[in-house]
Amino acid sequence: MRLPFILLLILGNCISSYVTSQTRSVVKVGVFAPFYMDSAFTDNTYKLGNTISKSNLPGLEFYNGVMMAIDSLNAEGVNAEVFFYDTKSASEPLNVILEKPVSKSFSLIIASFNNRAEIKILADFSQTNKIPLISETFPNDGGIIESPYFVLINSTLKTHTDALYKYLQKTYATSNIVWVKKQGQMEDLIQSYFTDNNKRTPSIPLRVKTVELIDSFITTDLLIKLDSNRQNIVVCGTLNEGFAMSVMKTLSANLNYSTQVIGMPNWDGFRDLVKPDFKAVDVLYTSPYNYPRTDKLGLYLSNKYRIKFLSRPSDLVFKGYESFYHFTKLWIKHRDNLIHNLSDKSFKLFNDYDIQPVKFKKENKDPDYWENRKLYFIKKVDGQLKLVV
């Protein structure tokens, strides 16, 4: 049976096309992700043998998720065109891709970024051509201003930090709160968000001890701030995985201290967190994403992915699936008015998006961008991830 879908797959210099219907498309979607195809192909010859490079994997997983969403939309009779672009292509960088006439005809752009500079290029393009740009992954806003077609699903660090502060006030106000800091500009910024909350709160400010550690810190540098007679809340304000795991290793080796670790939103990608070595230390972090593998859709996608790829789907697979399915369906429903209906829950799959306008100047008519303000609190207990109600 021929399905009403046209897929044009464009990855660097490797071009394949699949035409399943000659019917005029309803929606035209550009998908941008970091595939690093130049590192994997010489001309059209795959050069990595039977392996996949670590740098290729995130883009590939996102792509696989989008392709699974295409299968689902095909089954529903959706008629569309999809264009995939490698944001890391040397032969066709972003500015070259966006000069192509087809780019200006997109109804919708969905992107998985890993570089701030790329966000600005695509956000400027989306603003000029009034094309909604859905950004699914970290990094977040990339310093974007005056870009009312830019939609940030992966909430900013400030939004996460604000939510964590309120959670600490509500849940752990009387505990021994220790802010663990690594040297760095990003760490300074995260701490400033938290400190601003402490200054502005209408309630009693949190009492927080701060310890700044170097990468090669020794155990006593951290333990000196802990209290063996009280619950310790260790807020690790860093995005650096190596440093975060060093803190976790230290706490896991000193279980005589009752400790709850609070991590940053990108910790959801730290695979070492579920290792048996860290099982005894609970970790909590915020995330705009919650992908249960136990509900009907989660089980279906997991089983389908396992059969096809012989592996467990990562969150990037789910992000690719959900973003493509959800926002393609929303565009078909709202067309050019999608940007004002981003929180429409008609096609909810997993996450309850609460997409709100962000304005740096209140007098501005248009938002600087749109941001998803819905956050989930995820807790790792005994090596298992659980949603905190």
Account of the protein in words:
This protein is an alpha/beta fold. It has two domains: 6-155 and 293-374, Response regulator (Rossmann fold), CATH 3.40.50.2300; 157-287, Rossmann fold (3-Layer(aba) Sandwich), CATH 3.40.50. It is 33% helix and 22% strand. The chain contains eleven helices and 18 strands. Helix 2 (57-75) packs across helix 11. It is globular and about 65 Å long. Residues 10-22 have low confidence and may be disordered.
Give the gist of this structure.
This protein is α/β, with parallel strands linked by helices and 389 residues long.
Using brief descriptors, characterize the structure shown.
389 residues; alpha/beta; Rossmann fold; nine-stranded mixed β-sheet; seven-stranded mixed β-sheet; 11 helices
Itemize the secondary structure elements and their pairings:
Layout: E1 6-11, E2 14-19, E3 27-33, H1 37-40, E4 41-42, E5 45-46, H2 57-75, E6 80-86, H3 94-97, H4 101-104, E7 108-111, H5 116-129, E8 133-135, E9 150-152, H6 157-171, E10 176-182, H7 185-200, E11 208-213, H8 219-223, E12 232-236, H9 241-252, E13 259-262, E14 282-287, H10 296-309, H11 315-334, E15 355-358, E16 369-372, E17 376-381, E18 384-388
Parallel strand pairs: 1-6, 3-6, 3-7, 7-8, 8-9, 9-16, 10-11, 10-12, 12-13, 13-14
Antiparallel strand pairs: 1-2, 4-5, 14-17, 15-16, 17-18
